[in-house]
Design goal:
mainly beta; Methylamine Dehydrogenase, Chain H; 2 domains; four-stranded antiparallel beta sheet; 0% helix
Length: 426
């Protein structure tokens, strides 16, 4: 019997019933199996792995690998895991194609691949970018993906067999560094953001069944890269968008603006986290920036430090904020005051976001080394270091005692992406 986590949105919080046989009667309930990782930053949208079997802390390219599957093309989007499927985006050149792939969760066997766009690639991107940077999202019935193609952002819905159901153009897009915003699911909606340096940026809510735009807001004509994130803060569900020099809170179902204040840099990448009272913004242009802002609409910035947490999203647990600076320094602060508790140089350069599984924080650098350390305020405590030689920009999905990792290796002098399943699990 499968166990499901029903995210039931009610006034005042999120009620989690781990063993409910039927969903609660609310339009905002989305079923998530307890051993799944259905969208960017996992089931709770905060980088925390669901409870379950213990994830491994030791592996190599040849040890501790359950299976390995070749990924055609190139992408930096992270895998998601839903039911028996592991799903991710990719882009192939000559001919230019953007696709969605599905693999069997237990064996790594390819299940299907679906062409979403053909041609229309923009070649002049940041060297760390790709034409498939976004992470899919799945509500159990449909898979939702974002791509930049032919000078515009499109959101597309597929069924679980890979058949396209609908496709909606979000806005015209002028490329600056790249496009990486992933779709978020809430109630009957798919939530998307597309901030662009030229033309008109957009944040919007689309009907999950039809792709029809239910609501939208114009955004400043500035480059920016975060995904929309829905968190319970200040006693209610809020959708947060950071960057374009603003911190913005939106009521996700209606699209009504809760509040918007100065409190971020122009260009951001990370997805914010919350302790219920504060949200945490970070950016890297035009300045290094990490700040705690009250989530009550007061616009109060409680603390701020000049740390460069530009790309890797952070972890918050039990009143402590953990970050991996882009330049390879792990750091821990008290989340309410900003008091530094410890920091430790790890080395390497980081783009992959942190994931917390149990008491272990997983941090993978761009060279494929994963450093695992304990989530504790009592100093840096190393739990493991594991190397798969290659290149990593995606964030691993950790669920059911397994780690699903997207790694680009050099094989016979050629770049080859692979999806690794690390560990055994149930």
């Amino acid at each position: 019997m499968r166990r499901y986590l029903w995210l039931v949105i009610v006034a005042g919080g999120v009620c989690a019933n781990l063993f409910a046989a039927e969903p609660a009667a609310t339009e905002s309930a989305i079923p998530v199996a307890t051993h799944d990782w259905p969208w960017w930053r996992g089931p709770s949208r905060n980088g925390v792995a669901p409870a379950g079997p213990v994830a491994p802390v030791k592996w190599s390219a040849t040890e501790g690998i359950r299976w390995k599957a070749a990924i055609p093309g190139k992408g930096h989007g992270s895998p998601i895991v839903v039911g028996q499927q592991v799903i991710l985006n990719t882009a192939m050149h000559n001919p230019d194609r953007q696709m969605v792939l599905a693999f069997d969760r237990d064996s790594g066997k390819p299940l299907w691949q679906t062409l979403i766009h053909e041609g229309g690639f923009v070649e002049k991107q940041n060297e760390k970018s790709s034409s498939a940077n976004s992470t899919p999202a799945c509500d159990g019935q449909r898979i939702y993906v974002n791509f930049l193609s032919h000078g515009a952002i499109y959101t597309t819905a597929l069924d679980r067999q890979g058949k396209q159901i609908w496709q909606t153009k979000i806005n015209d897009y002028v490329l600056h560094q790249g496009f990486s915003s992933s779709p978020a699911l809430f109630g009957p909606l798919v939530l998307v953001t597309a901030d662009t340096k030229g033309g008109q940026g957009v944040v919007a809510g689309l009907n999950r069944e039809t792709g029809k735009m239910v609501w939208s807001h114009a955004r400043p004509a500035l480059p920016n890269y975060p995904s929309p994130i829905i968190l319970n803060a200040a006693g209610k569900e809020q959708m947060f968008v950071i960057g374009c020099d603003k911190v913005t809170s939106i009521e996700p179902l209606s699209g009504s603006m809760n509040w918007e204040f100065d409190g971020a840099t122009t260009e951001c990448v990370t997805s914010t986290v919350t302790d219920g009272t504060h949200i945490y913004t970070s950016g890297g242009y035009p300045k290094n920036h990490l700040a705690a802002m009250k989530a009550d609409g007061s616009g109060t910035v409680v603390w701020e430090v000049p740390a460069r947490v530009y790309v890797p999203s952070m972890i918050l647990q039990e009143g402590r904020l953990y970050a991996m600076l882009d330049a390879g320094v792990a750091q821990c602060w008290k989340s309410d005051t900003g008091e530094e508790l410890w920091k430790q140089r790890i080395g390497g350069t980081f783009s992959s976001s942190l994931v917390l599984a149990g008491e272990a924080i997983y941090a993978t650098d761009e060279g494929g080394k994963t450093t695992i350390f304990r989530a504790t305020p009592k100093g840096f405590h190393l739990l493991g270091e594991n190397q798969i030689a290659g290149e990593v920009f995606a964030t691993p999905a950790i669920c059911g005692g397994r780690i699903y990792h997207r790694v680009a290796e050099m094989i016979d002098g050629q770049r080859q992406e692979s999806l690794f399943c690390i560990g055994s699990g149930e």
